Amino acid sequence: MSKETVNQETPIEEVKKVSRRGLGSARGTARLKFGNDQAKPNGLFLSHLEEVKYSTITIGEDKTGMPSFNGFEIPKLTLTFASNEEDPNKRHYVSKTFTAVESNVNTIPGGKEEWKVNSVFDWLKHVLNVYYLKGRELTDEEAAALSLTFEDFDEQGEYVSVDTEIVINAWKVLFENFENIMNRGKDGKPVYHDKNNKFIPVWLKLLRYVKSRKSWTPINNGDLSFPQFVGEGCIEIYQQNVIPSIKIDLVKETILIMNVEKPKTPNMPAVGGMAPMMGGVAIDQTMNPMGADISSQTIDDMPF
After folding, report:
1. Rounded CA gap, 234 and 257, in Å?
2. What string of H, E and C letters represents the secondary structure of 154-182?
3. Which residues have CB under 8 Å from 277's CB, separation 6+?
4. What percent of the chain has pLDDT over 70?
5. CA–CA separation, 152 vs 109, rounded Å?
6. Are 181 and 133 a contacting pair, CB within 8 Å?
7. How many whole angstroms separate alpha carbon 196 and alpha carbon 187?
8. Can you name the residues that pair with 202 across neighbouring β-strands?
9. Domain ranges in the chain?
10. How close are the terminal C-alpha atoms of the chain, in Å?
11. Which residues is 297 bridged to in the sheet?
12. Which of 124, 196, 259, 299 has its CA 20 to 30 A from that of 216?
């Protein structure tokens, strides 16, 4: 073999990795949901924030819930919490998802649907207060990064139309900045990890039903979920031997499994001499003393 042949490098053909659907990308069984078995006697749940993810979704042309976004790709922000088992396959999961909110005459300040915008802001600020701000105010730079960059109302508070793409991009920037703070705001590391890069344990308030207009309404088809409005708080850092400040309002919030009857029509015949009633009888949880275990009861909401 000649010297020239020995020194010659044989070219290596690069094999392009092809992403294909298959078992390698399958998760297997569905993630476990939180149940009352995971609730502590105070009705709260011990958990940790496992992931903060920014993504996008496309609103279908046939959807009517957000007509101005139909056919557009809009930003989505998902916070995924999990129970604290060492084995991820044994953990129970719950997520809170936020999407862009339309700009219209109803969602501006003072509009009848202003709550759609405020509920997103209140939730994100609550999460930042727990993990990042910890009692301090936002800096001017942070506040600007976490604000919508369009104005859809004038000095008189009247609605001003804004192009849909500008609205979507503003929410995109806000969500991306929030995700950046949460995932890289502690010297390039997640703010929901401790100094040893482990998940920070937290208390969660998850509910099945809330009382609305004297009747119980499911939050997410009766599954344990975060309420739509953050209220007085739904997340709190766990501290050993310290009673959490967040709590379930037993008058209008419940984790109990309930069989809520659908409203009956007014002309239904009375049963047993009793006049028909609309909806189920509200459950009065105030009968439970504050120290009692409210995590493992089952109640039928019967239309007596």
Report:
1. 20
2. CCCCCECCCCHHHHHHHHHHHHHHHHHHH
3. 264, 303, 304
4. 76
5. 9
6. no
7. 13
8. 47, 237
9. 30-249
10. 99
11. none
12. 124
